[in-house]
Amino acid sequence: MKTRNMHFTARKLWTGAALAATLLASNLAIAADITFTADQTYPESVTWSARQHVFMVGSVRHGTVGKVTPDGRYTVFIKDSRLVSTLGLLVDDRRNVLWVTNADPGAGERTNEATRGKLAAVATYDATTGAPRAYYDLSSLDPGAHLANDLVLDARGNAYVTDSFAPVIYRIDTKGHASIFARDARFKTGEGFNLNGIAMHRGGYLLAGNYNSGELFRVDIDDPSKIEQVKLPEPLKGADGFNLIDDNHLVVVQNAGVDRTVELVSTDGWQTATIVRTQKSEQSMPTAAVKRNGHVYVLNSRIDTLFKPDAPKVSEYILQQF
Q1: What are the pLDDT digits (tens) for 5-28?
Q2: In which element (H, E) is residue 182 found?
Q3: What is the three-class DSSP state of 95?
Q4: How deeply is 24 buried, as exposed, middle or buried, from its count of CB atoms within 10 A (0-12, 13-18, 19+)?
Q5: Residue 279 buriedness (CB in 10 A; 0-12 / 13-18 / 19+)
């Protein structure tokens, strides 16, 4: 009886250890960084489709959209001759629509004098098949320089798009009507990139960041003339991609030499915010963040090597767990 009990206890301990090891391996697999190879694609943005169980990434150089599986396999999903550089991406699983911002920062294979620094457009596609749905030329709404960057949807399906070269936020409503939603001098404080990351808060306002000044703004959805600056402990210069984890936590990806991700917390409805966590990027030029299965992944785009003529070009990129 004693030997039998010893064998039972040993078997129980072994089973428990095996289960613990399996759970640990599963957690590590979910939480680990994801490395993928895409031939000099230089993805600036990333979105996650829970419906398809894939990431989707854009391409500054090729103007394509690709899919990345959780184990790091990349395949091209959308090729559209109208797309110069695909920046902001957002998949709407509920409506099965993929939203893509189209811009020309001057480093794409299709860059040309007619569109360089002047292009602000949004294209939509069937998120499953990649079939084109609609195309919106936003640059026609306002004279001057343009670069459509990031976008977000509200609960009704209206889209809001930032322009890094013009001090405006565009709106595309559910009927397909495009307009200038908000305009403010603080949205453009210098040359180069200005408005960039954007997030939708279910409290009825947008959170939008100025890449150049490092300022964060709260824009009322019902009254877009009501624009308030969020008080921060320091300017978040180089603030690029946003990911609103919940009502009180915002992940902000910084590059421009800072190359880190910060987590902001607000307890007063984003009148003020504090920094509670930071993480340096593993590679250069982190640009976007996305949430998948409770984990946040930050895209290390390495776009700095694309814009430097003498820099070696790269094809390996990381989705770094934050």
Answers
A1: 444 444 444 444 444 444 444 444
A2: strand 178-183
A3: coil
A4: exposed
A5: middle
230/207 Cα distance (integer angstroms): 9
Q: How far apart are CA 193 and CA 240, in angstroms?
A: 10
Q: How far apart, in whole angstroms, are the C-alpha atoms of residue 220 and residue 169?
A: 12
Which stretches of the chain are DSSP H helices?
Answer: 2-31, 304-307
CA–CA gap between residue 8 and residue 178 (Å, rounded): 70
Selection from 213, 153, 157, 222 nearest residue 188 by Cα: 213
Task: Judge whether 74 and 66 are in contact, CB under 8 Å.
Answer: yes
CA–CA gap between residue 50 and residue 277 (Å, rounded): 26
- Please report the pLDDT score of residue 108 as a whole number: 97
pLDDT at 31: 62
H-helix or E-strand spanning residue 275:
strand 274-280
Low-confidence stretches of the chain (pLDDT < 70) are 1-31
DSSP classification of residue 269: S
- CA 267 → CA 199, 216, 270, distances in Å? 17, 16, 7
* Whole-prediction pTM: 0.90
Going 128 to 306 to 299 to 135, the CA torsion angle's sign is negative
Per-residue tokens: 65: 């959209």
190: number of Cβ within 10 Å: 10
The Cα 213–Cα 90 span in angstroms is: 25
Number of H helices, E strands in the chain: 2, 24
Q: Which tokens in the block code for residue 35?
A: 């490395």
Torsion sign across C-alpha atoms 115, 121, 127, 129: negative
